């Protein structure tokens, strides 16, 4: 069991990666078929956990994540939360949970000396629209460029290069480094030479991203210990029961892969 309270008190840096729009079934079959060798070597025994996301598209899911609500197991009994805003006096909190005295996790971590940095991916992190500034505004520092976004076939390489630059700059202080991987968000048909997005093309996008995420985590953990959280913010429907896209309470949207580990 991970004690985020102990980890944060010790000033351990945190890497939080969201694989945007990644369906649980796609992540699981890619893992089982050996298409993501780095994740296979990194993830806990058994691979990805299936969890339920608190939001059916990018904005509400991430607002929930940064407020302390990570994806939950699809069962009545839940493990202690990693982090939580201080609750009302009548509610008990597990000692392993990091309780923050702030309206969001980023401000709570700042009170413990952390620098929070966002390496955005999809346009909700781009500042190109009013809504595109809501999530970046939560961070001390945010970075986004067009080549970080999913239409760019080598987006994850560019994002990882940017994340490593940030980590080098702040290697002597606790860092909350957030990376929103856009490769698994539509459009991803180009990874298999098609104009249509499917489970097959999302699997190919994840296989592409695996190598670069491996490079990121290998280089970060070579220098120090990190708490690493990886999950999808939501899934995506590709014609399932006639549905397309996200923002709907369909199982393929609400079931997401999740993993947390210390390395």
Strand order of the largest sheet: 2-11-8-1-7-5-6
Shape: globular
CATH topology: Alkaline Phosphatase, subunit A
Cα Rg: 17 Å
User: Could you name the CATH class?
Assistant: Alpha Beta
The H-and-E topology, N to C, reads as HEHHEHEEHEEHEHEEEHE
Oligomer: single chain
Biggest sheet overview: 7 strands, mixed
CATH architecture: 3-Layer(aba) Sandwich
Count of discrete structural domains: 1
Q: Give the CA-CA distance, first to last residue.
A: 14 Å
Proportion in helices: 25-40%
Helix-strand makeup class: alpha/beta
How much strand?
A: 15-25%
Care to count the β-strands? 11
- The CATH homologous superfamily is called Alkaline Phosphatase, subunit A
Question: Can you offer a commentary on this structure?
Answer:
GO terms for molecular function: hydrolase activity. The structure is a single chain. The protein has 263 residues and is of the alpha/beta class. The protein has a single domain (4-262), classed as Alkaline Phosphatase, subunit A (3-Layer(aba) Sandwich), CATH 3.40.720.10. It has helices at 4-9, 24-32, 37-42, 58-65, 105-110, 155-169, 199-221, 251-254, and strands at 13-19, 49-52, 83-85, 98-100, 115-119, 141-143, 175-181, 226-231, 237-238, 244-245, 255-262. The chain is globular and about 50 Å long.
């Amino acid at each position: 069991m991970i004690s985020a309270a102990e980890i944060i008190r010790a000033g351990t840096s945190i890497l939080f990666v969201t694989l945007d729009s990644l369906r649980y079934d796609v992540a699981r079959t890619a893992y089982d078929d050996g298409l993501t060798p780095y994740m296979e070597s990194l993830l806990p025994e058994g691979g990805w956990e299936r969890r339920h996301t608190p939001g059916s598209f990018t904005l509400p899911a991430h607002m929930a994540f940064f407020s302390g609500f990570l994806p939950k197991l699809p069962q009545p009994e839940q493990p202690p939360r990693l982090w939580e805003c201080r609750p009302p006096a009548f509610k008990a909190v597990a000692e392993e949970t990091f309780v923050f005295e702030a309206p969001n996790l980023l401000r709570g971590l700042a009170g413990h000396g952390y620098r929070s940095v966002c390496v955005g991916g999809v346009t909700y992190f781009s500042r190109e629209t009013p809504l595109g500034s809501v999530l970046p505004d939560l961070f001390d520092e945010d970075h986004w460029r067009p080549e970080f976004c999913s239409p760019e076939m080598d987006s994850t390489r560019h994002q990882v290069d940017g994340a490593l630059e940030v980590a080098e700059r702040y290697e002597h202080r606790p860092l909350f480094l957030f990376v929103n991987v856009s490769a698994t968000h539509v459009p991803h048909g180009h990874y298999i030479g098609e104009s249509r997005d499917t489970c097959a093309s999302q699997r190919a996008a994840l296989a592409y991203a695996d190598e670069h995420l491996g490079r990121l985590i290998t280089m970060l953990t070579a220098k120090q210990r990190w708490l690493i959280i990886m999950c999808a913010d939501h899934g995506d429907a590709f014609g399932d029961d006639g549905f397309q896209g996200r923002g709907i309470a369909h199982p393929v949207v609400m079931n997401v892969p999740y993993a947390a580990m210390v390395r």
